[in-house]
Amino acid sequence: MHFARLQRPLQRAAASSCRPFGAVLRATTSLQSRFAQLRITSPTAANAAVQGKRYASVKSQGAYRVKMKKTIPKKLGAKKTGDQYVIPGNILYKQRGTIWHAGENALMGRDHTIHATATGYVKYYRDPLLHPKRQYIGVVFNREDKLPYPKGTPRRRKLNLSAVPRKIDEAVEEEITARSGIPLSVTRHDLVEQTTDTGAVAADQTGSGASSKAQEPVPLTDGNAVVSSLIREKLRSRASGQAKNEAERLRKEKELEARRGTRVFRLQDDYSYRESNWEIGRLVGDAGIIPGADMTEPRKAKFRLRRRKRMVHFKGIKKRKMAKAGRRDEYRGRVREKRAGRLVQRVEAAAAVKATQAAAAAAAAAAKAATAAQTKVEA
Amino acid sequence: MSRPQQVARPIVRSLRQATGSSAACHSRPIALRQFSSTSIRKDETTTTTPAAAEPAADAALPGDKKPASFSTTIKQGSEEQLSRFLVPELGSRRRRAALATTGEVPFEQLPYQCFQEARKILAQDRDEKVAKIVAETAKAERLEAADASTFRGGEQYKQRRLESLREHIEELKILADINDPLVKRRFEDGKGDMNKPVYRYLAHRKWSSMDRKIVLQRLEQFHIVPDLLPKFEPVMDVKMTFRGYKVSPGAILNSRITESAPTLRMQVFDKGERVFSVVVMDADVPDAESDSFGKRLHFLATNIPWDPTKSILPLTRVGIDPSASTTYTVTPEPGALAVPWLPAFAQKGAPYHRMAVFVLQHADDAELDAAKLKELYDGAGREGFSLKSFRDKFALTPVGFSMFRSVWDENTADVMIRNEIPGVDVEFKRQRIVSLKPPRKARGWEAKRQGPKFRHLWKYTKRIKGVSFTKRGERKR
């Protein structure tokens, strides 16, 4: 069946091509058949059918593309004309840079867009007293008003508020018991140790004592006394500050301890008493603090510390090297000095030897001469 | 090497070897001292004793240990603590340290050579200036005595000439004393005589350096100009304290503090007596009916005589009747009270109120009729007070300014009830501004499935948080 359907157009094509032209126009053939012969199916379509191809009846993807960035319209320009009614927030003008400036009852946004800040009518104007070259967009309350307003006149303002009876917030009384008469919450306290309490009190006392001492006047003797009093004052304030910090820390610790000791059980829908989840969570620390997550070392600080450690390390190496070089130089200097001393000594010794030798020679010569003279005399 | 040297060298060397122990010691301790911070015994004897003796001698130099006639104590504490006292004699930390170190030697006799030499030069300069002043004054007298017709410019020329001469003399008077350390000191101590031009000049310079600038800024940033006055330039110093607390201009104050009138510290910088009026007014009274802001007079005192030597004016005491108070006696300030103090208040929800304090100078020191002012401005006349028309009507010149602001706070309701001010029960709320866009139909999955066709989905589409429906499934209006 398939094969036959495929073959039919082929046969028809072959028939039409090989049939003589005269035969086509023969009168015996019916009009319908003649039309049928004239109807020529396109060869490509026939081929497509042959090859099993289909054409898209729905447009393919990518036909609607985002156009080039440069050509996206920015839609700048005036959004409201002069004398047009606007409400706060309406955009009056979109622009690149400050072609227009915000005038009366208008403001300029981050991208230089001019917005209205009041209900009224838009006015485009210049204000040579304010700036000789700028052009402004403003909003006036009355359509017939002109901008700029004359200088030295009070500002035109609107209240934009309506007077209503004042609502007085009355303190809401907290219900203690449920309608059925049973308490809404049950609080259970644990005993807290009293040791920390005394420590805090002692710290407080020292702090107050320091502050009372600071009020005393200091006699003026000379400048040194003043300076020393200043120093003392500073030290005292530092000590009191430390004491205060310590007391604060203790207080917080105590508070936390008390909170841990106190447990509030609240009435639930099913008439059971249970601690609320946030209270259970609060047991480990204060609000907003995740235990274990606080006081972590910042990454930057870590690297800073590492850098410093390395610097110290390398500086140490350099220092040691320098010291070593210094010692070496010193040693060499000493050796050089010693050698020079030795040389001098040697030269001097040689000179001395020479001198003694010369003296000896001279003495010998003198002796010889003397003996010669003696012999001469004897002779 | 010459012969004698050759001969001497071995002798020297032998000598050096004989004293070798001490010579070698000379270098060794230096090497050792690198590791010790204390001095060796040999150094101690030479250096430490004079070092200990000298400062003691220096310290004893300025003064003997006699009991001092004046206060020899200084207050201890930080600058902040000390600044609360508001005493000008306290001075800066530097001044206090200087006072502490000089003992009771008079300031002009301080034993510093450079200081004394400089004083000599200054004295010489002053003599020159004084001679000049004498000469110029004589010249002015001569000019005054002269006939105006002798000048080509006539009387006008003569007057102009005289005026400029007098100005010059005033300038010379300032220049004669401006460099005197004693004058400077007296001014810093707050003991300067404000009748003298040099102290007035110094006070004006001090005011102009910061306080005036702040006041000018407040005038501009709070739009006092042009809201209350079209043009205004303050020429005198006005400071404000409420119950002894300093108030910086423009501060937002609690209504409990502003329930009673402030005390003004006023300083004028030009010589002579004059008469003042003091106005305190609210520039932001909300008016819901006309949808605008009005003005209200809170205080008006008039005919207050003033001169450069005066400084403090408690507004609570202006023109009061001393016999009225039975519990304790108060000294009334000169002047007439036209409109008594109305506490500053702001209704809930209203934007902050600018409370402006103006000091106005009367023309030709003429006194105003306080009764007439009372009639005009007291009671219902407080509302809609215009400073500009007040100024024009009575020929006044605004010279001083200060301000504070008030907002609704936890005490305002009590203050208003206590002083029987109406309007406690009113609150201001924002007006709704209707959008210019047309209303839009509801959109979304739920909006599409509201109809009866989707009855089976109503349990989902009609249970929207924040939207209430009727039992029949229609949205409540």
UniProtKB/TrEMBL annotation, chain A:
Keywords: Mitochondrion, Ribonucleoprotein, Ribosomal protein. Residues 200-220 are annotated as: Disordered. This is Large ribosomal subunit protein bL27m. SUPFAM superfamilies: Ribosomal L27 protein-like (SSF110324). It is found in: Mitochondrion. Belongs to the bacterial ribosomal protein bL27 family. GO terms for molecular function: structural constituent of ribosome. GO terms for cellular component: mitochondrial large ribosomal subunit. InterPro entries: Ribosomal_bL27. Residues 205-214 have a biased composition (Polar residues). It comes from Trichocladium antarcticum. GO terms for biological process: translation.
From TrEMBL, chain B:
It is found in: Mitochondrion. The keyword Mitochondrion applies. Keywords: Mitochondrion. Component of the mitochondrial ribosome (mitoribosome), a dedicated translation machinery responsible for the synthesis of mitochondrial genome-encoded proteins, including at least some of the essential transmembrane subunits of the mitochondrial respiratory chain. The mitoribosomes are attached to the mitochondrial inner membrane and translation products are cotranslationally integrated into the membrane. It comes from the Eukaryota. Belongs to the phosphatidylethanolamine-binding protein family. Mitochondrion-specific ribosomal protein mL38 subfamily. PANTHER family: PHOSPHATIDYLETHANOLAMINE-BINDING PROTEIN (PTHR11362), PHOSPHATIDYLETHANOLAMINE-BINDING PROTEIN 4 (PTHR11362:SF82). Residues 46-60 have a biased composition (Low complexity). GO terms for cellular component: mitochondrion. InterPro entries: PEBP, PEBP-like_sf, PEBP_euk. SUPFAM superfamilies: PEBP-like (SSF49777). Residues 35-74 are annotated as: Disordered. This is Large ribosomal subunit protein mL38.
